[in-house]
Amino acid sequence: xxxxxxxxxxxxxxxxxxxxxxxxxxxxxxxxxxxxxxxxxxxxxxxxxxxxxxxxxxxxxxxxxxxxxxxxxxxxxxxxxxxxxxxxxxxxxxxxxxxxxxxxxxxxxxxxxxxxxxxxxxxxxxxxxxxxxxxxxxxxxxxxxxxxxxxxxxxxxxxxxxxxxxxxxxxxxxxxxxxxxxxxxxxxxxxxxxxxxxxxxxxxxxxxxxxxxxxxxxxxxxxxxxxxxxxxxxxxxxxxxxxxxxxxxxxxxxxxxxxxxxxxxxxxxxxxxxxxxxxxxxxxxxxxxxxxxxxxxxxxxxxxxxxxxxxxxxxxxxxxxxxxxxxxxxxxxxxxxxxxxxxxxxxxxxxxxxxxxxxxxxxxxxxxxxxxxxxxxxxxxxxxxxxxxxxxx
Length: 393
Fold this sequence. Notes:
transmembrane helix; 3 domains; Heat Shock Protein 90; single chain; 60% helix; 393 residues; 5-stranded mixed β-sheet; 5 strands; alpha+beta
């Protein structure tokens, strides 16, 4: 059961928390020092109170070691230096308190204070008259050893912890740099695959379809194999694009790059066309609108984008209609303007135009087709037929 205001933590459990250990240690050492003084001064009842008072004076300051380590260590050291001079050598509990205080000094980084604190014990142990003090030279040597060893141990522990933190920081920085380099390399590979390999694979699909449609008298087996080549190329392109998506997400570029556009962004594209052209631009939708495969929507968006660009270039100021016909299994896309139409003398911008070639390649890449030429009532017409999958699950 968790403690609440109605059910507070029991006192004995609270004393075991880290914030209370100095008080608990002071109580334990004080009791141990009193017992040792009582045993040592059993035959001298007149001097026992002074010995008990000195023992408590040397152990009680350990309660301040967490909040005021310097004050605690100085008080304990002072009592330890005075006690033998007046006939009371330090008890074992007092030596433990002295060692704890010096260890905490070194552990918390008070290295100079710990060094200064050792000096009186060195002088005390080396003084000629120490042998005449209570207990002889043994207590002075014990106090010097406890003070020096505890201070060095605390300082070494602090240095080790600092070294471990620095090593952890260096490892984290190195891991971050390696991850950054790896992500950059994966992003570079993704770009190269997209710029080079995707174009060539799409050309394989286009050329196989073109060879099948333009070669007269082709045997049925040859036409079947060309269809298989086109389908394999398109499948390979789809798989490669999935791989590119994994590489780009792994490279951490999904935050900085925009999602691929689709048909739901056509209104923004048409608004941009209206701003750049003096003519009007309309979007006409026939049939029930259904979500399509992202690849189909991307191809349709790019075809409309390129068609609007061509209209602005070759029929500046002309009105443009963009029509979407949603049919079962097919999306019919028409972009028509009322401009002057194709150039005279039959010079249509068909196979020779890079924009139209790119649109045909995009349509063929998803198994569709695209035609371009003069519109029935004037102007220029681009018509694409794209197969659909009926939407995403």
